[in-house]
Amino acid sequence: MATSAAPSTAQGSKPAAPANGNVIKRYIYTSTTLPNQTKPTHTPSLQSELMALMTSPTPGISAFPTADLTHWNATLLGPADTPYASLSFKLTLAFPANYPYAPPEVLFKTPIYHPNVDMSGRICLDILKPGGQGKEGAWSAALNTESVLLSIQSLLGEPNK
Asked: Is residue 106 in some structural domain?
């Protein structure tokens, strides 16, 4: 009767490698972060902003994530008493990994003729530029998706000079 014994190692020596020569490494992760990656800060913020938009919607504004939480589609209704009244505009929002400490990239997807929107749909608005010491932008981590969309809706009625 043959018995097979597990390979033993002397104290202080390395365990024997598998017979095929491959080394097996085991990692235990407590989050979805892989080694040498930083965990994104935007996930909790975006989840709470989405819940706020869903539970107490603002008239004329809607926004929802697409395939992932970092890319959203938004719809704005043109403000009353402006040339944009009764029009609906589609926008996209792309949130950086360090959101809310950096602004989202917001683009008009619906073509619009406006002095603060270029032909590619990029919006010239100070709160969409990074703020801080030595920077011209006015972005603040206190701003959120709803306040950005409200500012853009307001910009339609009152262009920057």
From this structure: yes
The per-residue pLDDT for range 2-14, each reduced to its tens digit, is 554 544 445 555 5
What is the Cα–Cα distance from 125 to 159, expressed in whole angstroms?
10
Tell me the whole-structure pTM to 2 decimals.
Answer: 0.72
Residues whose CB falls within 8 Å of the CB of residue 110, separated by 6 or more in sequence, listed in order: 88, 89, 90, 91
CATH of the domain at 98: 3.10.110.10
Distance of alpha carbon 103 from alpha carbon 129, whole angstroms: 6
Q: Is residue 8 in some structural domain?
A: no
Residues designated as active site: 124
Q: Count Cβ atoms below 10 Å from residue 65 Cβ, excluding itself.
A: 15
How many domains does the chain fold into? 1
